[in-house]
């Protein structure tokens, strides 16, 4: 049940008196009130921003992504809105962008950008790594069509952030189950690794023993990110202890990653493991930000070839 009220409407309908409005409600925006002491959820903060716009604004960006069901969004984010006001109130970020009628929908009584338009904005306005993670998650929950996002890029040629959007749009993958998995995948891609596949099922006969985060099935190499749930959740911890050795007995090599690992540690271990499984070690063109890491890997490959130790490197 919604707890926010528009003060003038509530007074006009007689549902509250001026005294009750002052005594029992906190003003969160001009003419928008919540019960006194009530801790607002993100959905309620979005409702409040929409009501503050007198229902003329359109919720966009991360807030729109949250309304579409995306996870990993902090409760205290500023609410992005496409609106025409020149001085937005605290807690609201206004973008005076053009917006087509086919880019707006209603979600839980709030006007919000469609999944494709939300992805279009996330890919332009968020930092590159975060943008991919946010778009991955939105793809997971809405299955938006990247072709629709490309169409918007053609419709709005010259707007801010298109270069970044066009570069990361082909990399979007709804199989990523967390922002860290998206970051890992982008690290491999930026360094020139073959594109990893997400959510690889490991079969034990006809039964799926486990679905792993990402990897290269043709080389039987997978990468698993151990998040906090693997450390604090006893059930998950025990499950990993029992399942991962069985996966390795089936012929797979599992590279386990934790947040304390440096980018170089992750890349080196994965590179060595893939080499041991028959990969030729040739990297594609790296992203400029990862050029030095890619060069180190090529030097490692050269050293291994010269030493004759270019096989059986896993472990």
**Total domains:** 2
Q: What distance lies between the first and last C-alpha atoms, to the nearest angstrom?
A: 55 Å
Order of helices and strands: EHHEEHEHEEEEHHHHHEEEHHEHH
Strand content: 15-25%
Query: How would you sum up the global shape?
Result: elongated
Rg on CA atoms, Å: 24 Å
User: What would the average pLDDT be, to the nearest integer?
Assistant: 93
Largest sheet: 4 strands, mixed
β-strand number: 12
User: What class would the helix/strand composition place it in?
Assistant: alpha+beta
Widest sheet, order of strands: 9-10-11-12
Helical segment count: 13
Query: Unreliable runs, pLDDT <50, ≥5 residues?
Result: none
Helix content: 40-55%
Written overview of the protein:
By secondary structure, this protein is of the alpha+beta class. The protein has two domains: 132 residues, no CATH class; 129 residues, Endonuclease, Chain A, CATH 3.40.960. It is built from 13 helices and twelve strands. The strands form four sheets. The protein has a four-stranded mixed beta sheet, sandwiched between helices. It has a three-stranded antiparallel beta sheet with strand order 1-3-2. It starts with a strand and ends in an 8-residue tail after the last helix. The mean pLDDT is 93. This is DUF559 domain-containing protein. It comes from Mycolicibacterium fluoranthenivorans.
